[in-house]
Amino acid sequence: MNHRIVVLGAGYAGATVAGRLARRLHRDEVEITVVNGDPEFVERVRLHQLASGQDLPRRPLHDLYAGTGVRVRQAWVTAVDADRRTVALTGEHGAETLGYDTLVYALGSTAADHGVPGVAEHAHNVAGKQDALRLRARLGELEPGGTVLVAGGGLTGIEAAAEIAEAHPGLKVAIAARGGVGDWLSDKAQRHLRVVFDRLGITVHEHADITRVEADRVVTAASGEIPARVTVWTAGFTVHPIAAATTLEVSGTGRIVVDGTMRSVSHPDVYAVGDAALADGPGGNPLRMSCATAIPMAWQAADALAARLTGREVPETTIGYSVQCISLGRRDGILQRVTPDDQVTSTVVAGRTGARLKEFICAGAAWSVAHPTLLLPGRRRHLVATAEAGHRLVTR
């Protein structure tokens, strides 16, 4: 029987793993199955664009993996049994169980409310496609002068605020952060950010700790109120609770703890990539949740798994960073150079050139996912029967 590889999630990390494995392993010796709730690959880094009213290219997973041997199952994951090596699913045919020999867990993350009352009832977010579409519809209902507040001063909040303000110039857009908005950026990048926000008419509320979200406003710790017909919550992400309900070793935040090859430290037949995994970067600092992390993690996991299955030396490299990219609408942006451990430098490219570079990077990431068999050498290797490789291997 062929070695069964099941990939849970088809975001940047999961989709990349599946395509890379299909390029490295003989399809008559493995069964690679991708399980995803959405029938399409979703460019999560563009969901603020979708929310603002723009349409994104459609990339059906069945088309993406056509001719690769990768099977696509549209279903939602409800549980994982890491000891019995099974996954519980629910889809159009009801509940079912899928067995695996190797599992790649890439279920990503969703918006974190941090226990703030009213977020679930009244706030929108851009953490998923359906969330972005609901926000898009709500923004379309607002009359001119309607107030929109983006809660969170990180990358997602900055991009969402700029995109909404540019696409809906008749709305009053504001952004609020517990600390400073973009305060980790270099001085040059922060100055450019302020200029763009001023041009777009975005009001900035810093050191505004939101303690409650209501239907038409938010309340801050200083007993202040900020009007908001629409609140967009971007104050962080959290992983789905599925992994924490298993016997897998997870962190205090529910992320699967992995080694340098993205393999679970407690279950060697499980790999985790993307936001759902806790991996160390340069200096032993945890890698942050981002597309810039997810794709290198996927490369690392796929190459390590393929090496173990084919009896080759397992590669292991430290994943580091080079830039942070921020879109500020469609015509402006910031490319902030960073060190491998994600510390900002004084090198910044901003304005239209920054926007073009950001677009180039985003388009390149999507292209690499949509063309999973074009970026690697064409040699597919045979599996070997070794204890390290796992179960149900073909001997060559």
From TrEMBL:
Instruction: Return the PANTHER family for the record.
Output: 64 KDA MITOCHONDRIAL NADH DEHYDROGENASE (EUROFUNG) (PTHR42913:SF3), APOPTOSIS-INDUCING FACTOR 1 (PTHR42913)
Q: Which organism does this record belong to?
A: Kitasatospora herbaricolor
Cofactor dependence is on: FAD
Domain FAD/NAD(P)-binding: start-end pairs? 4-302
* Annotated TM spans: none
Instruction: State the name under which the record lists this protein.
Output: FAD-dependent oxidoreductase
Question: Keywords in UniProt for this one?
Answer: FAD, Flavoprotein, Oxidoreductase
Q: Which family is annotated?
A: Belongs to the NADH dehydrogenase family.
Superkingdom to which the source organism belongs: Bacteria
InterPro entries assigned to the protein according to its UniProt record, in alphabetical order: FAD/NAD-bd_sf, FAD/NAD-binding_dom, NADH-Q_oxidoreductase
Pfam families from the UniProt entry: Pyr_redox_2 (PF07992)
Coiled-coil intervals in this record?
A: none
